[in-house]
Design brief:
Elements lengths: L1 E5 L6 H5 L2 H8 L4 E5 L13 E2 L9 E2 L1 H15 L9 E10 L2 H8 L3 E5 L8 H7 L2 E4 L9 H12 L35 E2 L2 E2 L2 H4 L3 H19 L1 H9 L5 H9 L2
Parallel strand pairs: 1-2, 1-6, 5-6, 5-7
Antiparallel strand pairs: 3-4, 8-9
Bound molecules: S-adenosylmethionine.
Length: 252
């Protein structure tokens, strides 16, 4: 898959693409990332990409024209046929919050163009003409869309085959439909006792079925405590067995 990122700060992506899981996905070519700076498509000595908002008020607005030229260059480099254009995603508080289902959809896609806003945002005429999807990282305001783009790329990268050191590990992560969308269970490692606290006995038993039951119980308990809405979803989908309901009933 290929992601073309439009950003005024391409340098922010260098360490991100040079480390850990995202480095492996990027280096293997499974997630092809190309960076585009709208400043390279702006006019004049100052290569201006922003201007004051009509109607007054604080801050600056990203101009439509450098973005439009940048997008033309991206589409030309992608060699896109008419009607086969990659979707343009704008990171914005307006969009739907990124979640696991969206990440799974993107990880199975051919990619897209990710537009990182800055300042007060982007001239609405560019958004109306070219943006297909708006995506938010949550109900708060970032200084720019770059961190949101990295969040999407990171989450997509770790779902690509062979990118994680342990292939199966993402299948045990929170929100996975294969584990009924529950949150992850607690994890422990050596030593067996730390600061007066023992590792739960079930995990030391060496008994596979007992360990799996303990993990399932803990997923249920953690989810019921922190995200009861996810328990409701699993229940409505008929994903909770009588043994699961018995665990939840004990929580009161
Ligand atoms: C300072 S913000 C602009 C905020 C905008 N004036 C507002 O109140 O919604 C600059 C850029 O950061 C990005 N951004 C800010 N918050 C975001 C969020 N919650 N999710 C995704 N992107 C965000 C967007 O690309 C936005 O254009």
């Amino acid at each position: 898959m290929r992601f073309d990122i439009i950003t005024l700060f391409p340098e922010l992506f260098a360490p991100f693409l040079a480390s850990g899981v995202t480095r492996r996905a990027y280096a293997s070519g499974q997630v092809d990332v190309r960076l585009w700076n709208p400043r390279d498509y702006a006019d004049g000595n100052y290569r201006r990409v922003d201007d004051r908002p009509f109607g007054g008020g604080p801050g600056m607005v990203m101009m439509a024209e450098p973005l439009a030229r940048c997008l033309v260059a991206i589409r030309a480099e992608r060699g896109e046929p008419e009607g086969g254009q990659a979707p343009v995603v704008l990171f914005s508080p307006i969009g739907e919050s990124l979640n696991h289902a969206a990440v799974e959809r993107w990880s199975a896609s051919a990619g897209g163009v990710l537009l990182c806003g800055r300042y007060e945002g982007i001239d609405q005429r560019f958004i109306d003409a070219h943006v297909n999807v708006q995506m938010s990282l949550g109900d708060f305001v970032l200084s720019g869309g770059e961190i949101a783009a990295m969040a999407l790329l990171d989450a997509v990268a770790r779902l690509q085959p062979g990118v994680l050191n342990d292939e199966g590990s993402h299948q045990l992560d929170s929100f996975n439909p294969a584990l009924d969308g529950l949150l992850d269970c607690p994890h422990y490692t050596r030593p067996e006792e730390w600061a007066g606290q023992q590792v739960p006995v079930a995990l030391m038993s060496g008994h596979h079925a007992q360990i799996e039951r303990w993990r399932r119980d803990q997923r249920l308990v953690t989810t019921a405590r922190h995200r009861p809405d996810l328990i409701d979803v699993a229940r409505k989908a008929g994903r909770l067995a009588p043994a699961d309901e018995a665990v939840l009933a004990k929580l009161g």
